[in-house]
């Protein structure tokens, strides 16, 4: 790997947020999933959870368009679950708080949430939102303040607005500079993983190119 490329990897890894993640529940539109992943990468999230309990749309069927994710899929680890309990068991083993986008009497404004700590953000289905089953695993609900006639946002837009509020709070807390989310050992491990992914991608690309040459002969 060229030194310039390696330095870029190190820079990205140093800003990865080991205590911030997203959970998507029954989000069926893969363009939305891809857009969410692209935003996650941009704010330093390196893993997300996709929960699919709809029997007509299992997590194993997920495909994410390259155009929508803009290559983010290569750098985001996706944990796929069909079981709510198993999903949240994994989430709770790594993240202290879970907040859901859900409107009820106790819902807080996004801008009143503390998002510079260890937190997972849950976003629900495009039409029905977050289910009662997953809400039972949450520490609170929040809404994005709106003053227009339409009181809803596309799932990927809602996620982007929320994550950039998290970014603002984390940047103020120094989590992208002097107070990194990952310690040195964790950064070294993640850097090794990214280098392996990069090399594997190059290897597969070379194999594909050789196969194409053979077909043309």
Give your account of this protein's structure:
The chain is built from 7 helices and 7 strands, in the order αβαβαβαβββαβαα. The C terminus is likely disordered. The protein is globular and about 55 Å long. 43% of the residues lie in helices and 15% in strands. Strand 2, helix 3 and strand 3 form a beta-alpha-beta unit. It has 2 domains: 52 residues; 156 residues, 3-Layer(aba) Sandwich (Alpha/beta knot), CATH 3.40.1280.10. It is an alpha/beta fold and 217 residues long.
The CATH superfamily name of the largest domain is: SPOUT methyltransferase, trefoil knot domain
- Please tally the helical runs, counting DSSP H or I stretches of 4 or more residues: 7
Biggest β-sheet: strands ordered side by side in the sheet:
3-2-1-6-4-7-5
CATH architecture level-2 label of the largest domain: 3-Layer(aba) Sandwich
CATH topology-level fold name of the largest domain:
Alpha/beta knot
Global Rg: 19 Å
The residue-averaged pLDDT reads 88
Helix content: 40-55%
What class do helices, strands and sheet pairing give?
alpha/beta
Task: Give a quick set of tags describing it.
217 residues; alpha/beta; Alpha/beta knot; 2 domains; 7-stranded parallel beta sheet; 7 helices; 7 strands; 15% strand; disordered C terminus
């Amino acid at each position: 790997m060229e030194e310039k490329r390696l330095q870029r990897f190190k820079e990205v890894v140093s800003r990865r947020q080991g205590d911030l993640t997203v959970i998507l529940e029954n989000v069926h539109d893969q363009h939305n999933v891809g857009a969410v992943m692209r935003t996650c990468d941009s704010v330093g999230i390196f893993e997300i959870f996709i929960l699919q309990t709809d029997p007509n749309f299992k997590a194993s069927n997920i495909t994410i368009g390259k155009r929508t994710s803009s290559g983010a899929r290569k750098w985001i680890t996706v944990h796929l679950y069909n079981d709510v309990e198993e999903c949240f068991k994994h989430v709770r083993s790594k993240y202290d708080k879970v907040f859901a986008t859900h409107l009820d009497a106790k819902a807080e404004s996004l801008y009143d949430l503390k998002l510079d700590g260890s937190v997972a953000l849950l976003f629900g289905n495009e039409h029905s939102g977050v289910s009662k089953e997953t809400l039972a695993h949450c520490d609170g609900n929040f809404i994005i303040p709106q003053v227009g006639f339409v009181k809803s946002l596309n799932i990927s837009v809602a996620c982007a607005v929320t994550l950039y509020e998290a970014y603002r709070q984390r940047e103020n807390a120094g989590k992208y500079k002097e107070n990194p989310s990952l310690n040195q050992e964790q950064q070294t491990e993640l850097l090794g993983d990214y280098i392996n992914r990069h090399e594997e991608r190059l290897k597969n690309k070379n194999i594909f190119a050789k196969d194409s040459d053979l077909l043309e002969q």
